[in-house]
Amino acid sequence: MTGPFPFPPAATEEILGWTSRRIASGPDPKHGAQAHAALDPVLGGSITEAGLGAEAAFRLFTETIVPSTRPFGHPTSLSFVASAPSRAALSFDAALGAAGIFAGNWDGGAGAIHAENQAIRWLADLAGWGPSAGGVFVAGGTLGNLSALHAAREWKARQAPRPDRWAVLCSSEAHSSIKAVARVMDVEVIEVEADATGRMTAEAAAARLTSAVFAVVANGGATNCGAVDDIAGLAELAERHGFWLHVDGAYGGAALADPALREAFDGIARAQSLIVDPHKWLFAPYDSCALVYADAGHGAAAHGQQAVYLDTVDKTHWNPSDYALHLTRRARGLPLWFSLAVHGTAAYAAAIGRTREIAEALAEGIAATEGLELILGPQLTVILFRPLGMGEEAMVAWAEGHRRSGALLCLPTRWRGEMVFRLCVVNPETDPEEVLAVLRSLVR
Ligand SMILES: Cc1ncc(COP(=O)(O)O)c(C=O)c1O
């Protein structure tokens, strides 16, 4: 063991052993955030001049860091948009880290990039896009939306006079990242009131269109309520008015793979870009977002970095850094590729279909339970409901109690100003009967 960082093989074995056991067991549902005051006495000061050594440092990870994180990968995690990585994807992710691949350009990561592009192609096929489609995996939906909307504005600016201020139009149910991206891009957001189910119609969008609009963002699964906007109507509007149609499918884009849900996305073949987060509903670990352009050339026209030290990079091949706002990148699409390659797309369709059935069973069970009111859903796999006669404080306390016990992560949200409970199913191993048994404690 030479060099400045001696690390015995036994320590590597220990980490790999823990990794392997963790992949088999999944997360502990009782885990959750701890306060700074609890963490600091243990983790504060863990960077020392002499170093703690492998055993002590790794123990901090297994005994303090991991238990103080939310078990999103557990089947009882039904809040926010959780995550349900397949064991294939998780195992492979560990190997990917070890491979140390630079996937910013073809020179650095050709094989990895070519494989990632197979997964991108699968998504492009699901959207109904032709051979000019292509894209890249970025860190998350926020960066995917930013990169797509930047490409959209560049595209529009090549064909239209610059207005005083560009605008992006989206639903009142659009994800918060759209407003965040608009702030970064310094563009106005025209927010169109969604209908009673949370869906933006083309008619409502048309009424708010202005000549400054360079892009419309359609929800391909609104985070809070699961609604899919009128993509076909918006595509028609886009063709008539010459704006870019971007589909934010960070959560819901996975539904394209389920024949029973595909219809909700009719018209997507006429959109210009799509994002889908594999770490949400495509059974991949954090963090990744597939950003796909119907015509990858529009992505390349907007992105990419030039520098003299990069002049030697082979520009004749597919360089992921040309399609989004990034340069160095991990091949973060590869765990999805591996899991797809191992299991096949039919298994993916079946697993997504299973989550739909679980959401349907939950909605039916809620509707059939006296004292619970089903408010909306399932739309894709999101359900909103409320316990009749329960105050907000009691709802929060109930949610917190069950989160702590590990029985269920079901947190409140708001719908039309009122506090309601929200469930979002992305895990095909969620047991609807087990969840319903917990929900019935709301009315006992
Ligand atoms: C519809 C939608 N868009 C965008 C995002 C942002 O994605 P990320 O958290 O990966 O940045 C989310 C995250 O939940 C989302 O649900």
From TrEMBL:
InterPro entries: PyrdxlP-dep_de-COase, PyrdxlP-dep_Trfase, PyrdxlP-dep_Trfase_major, PyrdxlP-dep_Trfase_small. Keywords: Decarboxylase, Lyase, Pyridoxal phosphate. One of its GO terms (cellular component) is cytoplasm. It holds the Pfam family Pyridoxal_deC. One of its GO terms (biological process) is carboxylic acid metabolic process. GO terms for molecular function: carboxy-lyase activity; pyridoxal phosphate binding. Coiled coil: none annotated. Its cofactor is pyridoxal 5'-phosphate. The modification N6-(pyridoxal phosphate)lysine is found at K280. Belongs to the group II decarboxylase family. This is Glutamate or tyrosine decarboxylase. It comes from Vannielia litorea.
